[in-house]
Amino acid sequence: MEEELKNSILKTGTSIVGIVCKEGVVLAGDRKVTAGGHIIMNKNTKKVVQINNYLVLAATGSASDIEMLRKIVSAELKLKELRDRKRPSVKEAVNLIAMISYRNIRQPSMIPFIAGTLVAGYNENGSVELYTIEPAGSAIKVEDYDANFSSGMPYILGLLERQYKKNISIEEGIKLAIESIKASSERDTGSGYGIDVFVITKEGIKQVSKQKASFEYREEN
Q1: Among 50, 67, 66, 47, which Cα is nearest to 58's?
Q2: Structural domains present in the chain
Q3: Which end of the chain is more exposed for a tag (fewer CB within 10 A), N or C?
Q4: Cα 6 from Cα 23, distance rounded (Å)
Q5: Is residue 73 a contact partner of residue 93, using CB atoms and an 8 Å limit?
Q6: How many CA atoms lie within 13 A of 90 on its CB side?
């Protein structure tokens, strides 16, 4: 089951990355959507989305599953806030997403739910956290960086193994995240066409970069 799950994720195509910095977290992703790993279905789909005013999610996997997960999580967190009369913590939100993933992947279905996520957010006490949730539902707190099971993961982690340093600044994290997505887009056929970068700090959430790749044919000299 675990091996089949990893293979399915790698076929879907995506590059996402989360980087823990001294002042917060940087999340980034590409924009290409493929079918079967061979056909480009969309060149401008955001893989990193803001769920609410304190949480950002980056996902890899089936596009429909990711969109449904985003809607469910947003609604469930709002309901929990109304019931408890307080805002859920980042860890509580992560456990909710992990539970949804765990439950859905185990329901008998001809088309199983497949989505791996990176979740970053800030708590009311000012702390900022990054978690990785594998498609089967395990949630792990990230202390440095991760790319989940995205198809660009080998290229991203290879670059970060060499260039990441503990307690880097947000500015350094942004540059490193952009370089990570560019590196994977050069070699991974399932990634490319753009980059979206979000920064999460105790002050809030901000999208700091929107890049769209363009290609042109030119006669060689």
Answers
A1: 47
A2: 2-211 (3.60.20.10)
A3: C
A4: 32
A5: yes
A6: 29
Rounded Cα distance, 152 and 192, in Å:
10
Q: Is the pTM of this model over 0.85?
A: yes
| Token output for 150 | 């995205």
Give the β-pairing of 16-20 and 145-146. antiparallel
DSSP string, 93-118: HHHHHHHHHHHHHTS--SS---EEEE
Residue found under tokens 């980087």:
19
- How far is 66 from 61, CA to CA, in rounded Å? 7
Residue given tokens 């996402």 in the structure block: 16
Of the residues 14, 34, 60, 117, which is catalytic? 14
189 is catalytic: no
Q: Tell me 215's DSSP state.
A: -
